[in-house]
Structure prediction request, 788 residues.
Amino acid sequence: MAARKSTQKSNVSAEDLTKFYREMLLIRRFEEKAGQLYGMGLIGGFCHLYIGQEAVVVGLEAACEEGDKRVTSYRDHGHMLACGMDPDGVMAELTGREGGYSKGKGGSMHMFSKEKHFYGGHGIVGAQVPLGAGLAFADKYQGNGRVTFTYFGDGAANQGQVYETYNMAQLWELPVVFVIENNQYAMGTSVQRSTKSPAIWKRGEAYGIAGEEVDGMNVLAVKEAGDRAVAHCRAGKGPYILEVKTYRYRGHSMSDPAKYRTREEVQKMREERDPIEQVREMLLTGGHATEEDLKAIDKEIKDIVNKSADFAKASPEPALEELWTDIYA
Amino acid sequence: MATEILMPALSPTMEEGTLAKWLVKEGDTVSSGDVLAEIETDKATMEFEAVDEGIVGKILIAEGTEGVKVNTPIAILVEEGESVEDAVASAPAASTEAPAAGAPAAPTAPAAAAAAPAAPEVDESPDYPEGTEMVTQTVREAIRDAMAEEMRADGTVFLMGEEVAEYQGAYKVSQGLLDEFGSKRVIDTPITEHGFAGIATGAAFGGLRPIVEFMTFNFAMQAIDHIINSAAKTLYMSGGQMGAPMVFRGPNGAAARVAAQHSQDYAAWYMQIPGLKVVMPYSAADAKGLMKTAIRDNNPVIFLENEILYGKSFEVPKMDDFTVPFGKAKIWRKGSDVTIVSFGIGMTYALQAADKLAEEGISAEVIDLRTLRPMDLPTVIKSVMKTNRLVTVEEGWPQGSVGSYIASEVMQQAFDYLDAPVITCTGKDVPMPYAANLEKHALITTDEVVAACKKVTYR
Ligand SMILES: Cc1ncc(C[n+]2csc(CCOP(=O)(O)OP(=O)(O)O)c2C)c(N)n1
Ligand SMILES: [Mg+2]
Prediction:
């Protein structure tokens, strides 16, 4: 149950590296575009970007099998793209249009895809934690061998329901991976200002839950930790905790002036730890790709993102009748 | 190709701002993520980052300019080798495709208009065929049987809660279920309402049909976030993709001498929530038939039971599969002078009052709503069109009560038929006291219902 140092050297294939690069880049470019559309007034309300945290979902999705489930908070665009949801449908939900995943009725914070086993998109900090354990409960009940990834933030980790859930998840040996995305801030409150016990994953020890800390800026380390967590769950040993150390470059939401940290702090992360740059380096120095290859990927991603923005602008607003639908099944 | 950089909206409400400071100058190369400028909104100074890469060809709005409208071009980004003049000539016109502002046209409310209605459509079919054999059962047994029948019929139905399995239920409602269905389907939880309500809701998202027992609904206040935000709203927020087919059940309202924290009636609270269905049965037959309907329903259902009613016996039809539909009130007693509407334990006072009134020659029609959402207002209105007088009875508090909602609907839909103001009989507007005499006083009484009926009939 001790924290394990993730191995830096890894026998990852060029193919996997390229895939990670492409998937992380898609999230980054998508989020930049979302920020831009927000600036143009096409996206309203709260919009929480995932820029800087891309390695977390991309690494963990690589540890998933078809049918595994995931649930997260309002900072959910990255999770949706990483699990294969259509960028057009996600962007159109951000613009509140008929072509969005929730027909425009959920918005940035509340999106779902039954088909891709993505269970939201939840706006109440911490609520997704028992929900995720409940999904795992259903899987165990049905004996289908599935695992649920339940993502939550360092701030959410202070909610009481997290520990109520830990207790029951371990008691009932539920196949759930609790992923604490520790991006070091909950809005403007740093981890240091919200807890005296900063090793958040260790709180699971009180319930007998195994876990570890992971370098969340290194997609390979995340993938390896994800493999360990999934193996633990699939073996019927109950839940597993991953505290993934990551960093968000942008404000908490679009309207965050970010006065609680210095520009230098952000700049340093970006320059020294950027998850996409790290993979880019590996691809180039490992001789797996040339600058031209990567340029081609960049172009391809840019096209996907531009297409999603075009779709999200062109898709009509939902019909007024939609106000009254989907209240009861 | 050149790109225009537009004045961004940096908060949900920003319409214009001050371009406080440029952090780049013409000729600088920028890439995505670089801070271009500082912009002051009414709330704060924010940094504005580049989205595209390129060279700052021309700055169109000088720093220090105030009142720059959102979406105004503030600079032009050009590509390597492109001249600003070419760029300006070929730059696309400023975007004007902001979405239609303001609220959508008000939809027509589904409620009926204020005009005097034609007699509303009412389902008066009997709940079971005439001549059906009846058995005497307590409400407690009826609820247990309903759960057992549905668990036999559907393997995805399971029961969880505190003391539901080995202890056989704090109020013995789940007696025998552990023996029959085993610990996989009858699950004792730790004392952790917020957590297990969330887990059950997640299990419902995942394809199961949970029945969550709250030892009493007083403790469900710790779980109400999941009941409302997670269970009730997800179908809507997901555009119909997924919801929570589940039942939250347990005793609600005052028991006896358990004082303020254990005696609250939540009928009016849950009744307000779109996405929830709310059931509050009085008789054993209704408890059984409505529980079976609740378990089969594809929505979250709040099933409000009552500790005092658990031990009360009623006739229950002996049928293989007896169900009662939601949204169908039951007329317990026909009458012509005044309509008394109640539900749950309130029916005890309503029926006793009707007996007393009959002795004095006042004929009361007594309606049991049975479900509060959907609510069978047509049956109430049809009755009021006959009696022209209405009294509502409930144990909950007066402000924002179930009765005040009914009164307002009747006023809007059948104003011309009322010969007296509606009286809403409720519990007193106080936390429940412990002392025996005070408790009695805090609750609604039969005498108060009788007095209200006399008042609206001017007797
Ligand atoms: C129950 C609840 N309390 C407060 C909020 C407002 N709020 C939204 S996000 C947030 C910070 C959460 O931070 P963290 O869990 O670290 O996640 P991050 O935003 O960093 O991804 C707060 C306080 C909320 N949505 N729900
Ligand atoms: Mg955080």
Q: What stands out?
A: Chain A touches chain B through 77 residues (CB under 8 Å). Residues A 73, 75, 123-125, 153-156, 183, 185-187, 252 surround thiamine diphosphate (ligand 1) (CB under 6 Å). Strands of chain A lie at 69-73, 118-122, 148-153, 176-182, 185-186, 189-190, 210-215, 240-245. The first strand of chain A starts at residue 69 and ends at 73.
